[in-house]
Amino acid sequence: MKRWLAYFTWRRALVNTSLVLYCLALFLIFDFAYSTLTQGQEKQHPARVANPTYDHGLAANFDGFDFWGELRYHLITNSLGFKDGSVRDVPLKPTSRRILLIGDSFTEGIGLNFEDTFAGLLANAGQQRSDKIEFLDAGVVSYSPSIYYKKIKYFLERGLQFDEVVLFSDPSDVTDEATSYFCIDDDPKYRAHCSPAEGSQQTAASKPDAEFFANHFAVTNRLRIYIKRSMMSWLGNRRRAINTEHPGIAWVFAASDAAQFNQPLGVDGGIARSLQNMGKLADMLAARNIPLTIVVYPWAQQLAQNDRDSRQVSLWRDFCRGRCKAFIDLYPPFFAETESDKNWFEHLFIIGDLHYSIAGNRFLFHQIEKQLLQ
User: Where are the domains of the chain?
Assistant: First the structure.
């Protein structure tokens, strides 16, 4: 009797296991078919390209998918290679007021569709007005003052016309200026640091095998990410990243080890080069009667570590005196949000990342819409 009971128990377990494996196989087959049909093939042409003048940018007229870490998102660019809501030809001469936005990954809106970024929200709001305002998003991941200057100069020399530049200065800009982009700098003392290894900063957002999996098993991948992030929240380890030092912004905290993250120029050298290239940009725009506005915003680590009187803010506030149309400091409203919402990090930032989420972009948009849409 015991032998028969053990046999039936073993047989039931085998049948149940087979059913689970069968259902899992069907799920993966249907997921593969659905993902391939609805999300298309992997992109044949890269979204991110090298540029000999301003180091790197986005490919023109791109309509496909890009990756940022585990995020797979729809990326569209216009004829200028700027992130946009649709593939379109942008005339050099605008038919209405035109504002050029530039910055790094926060301004590009890395990981998000254009309509969910603050640049996309500005673009949409600008088109809803009776006196339309066109916003162009020239921001790309890992940009800094050297590239801001060279890229704007590049497009001005090719006849692109715009009425104002709004530059979103990132806290990591000083570190980028201390460590990178020497090969494109006009100043010989910085060109001396140029090496063949510098190359383009094209984003390696994910490994090829991870990209293939996300493209062809989209539902399974989303389920995997959901489970992973739920476990992170349950374990309470989502906030670890904001309580630890990030090399890119160590300089704002005057950390004792900031120098090691800012070689070869050092923190002071990075600040000096930032000011030099931003000065060249401001002078170039002033010569063409194009006003410059600078916006500063905080990283999550700065909010968590109470960096209210930040070196980043004072640096660009002082720079703007007599040079800028306006200086917009977003530190106070972001700090106010942390005081009113104990879950600010989970709401304002992408899960598993340190860039602004859809809600974070919307919050930023509401802080600047009055100044930029007036």
Answer: 48-206+239-372
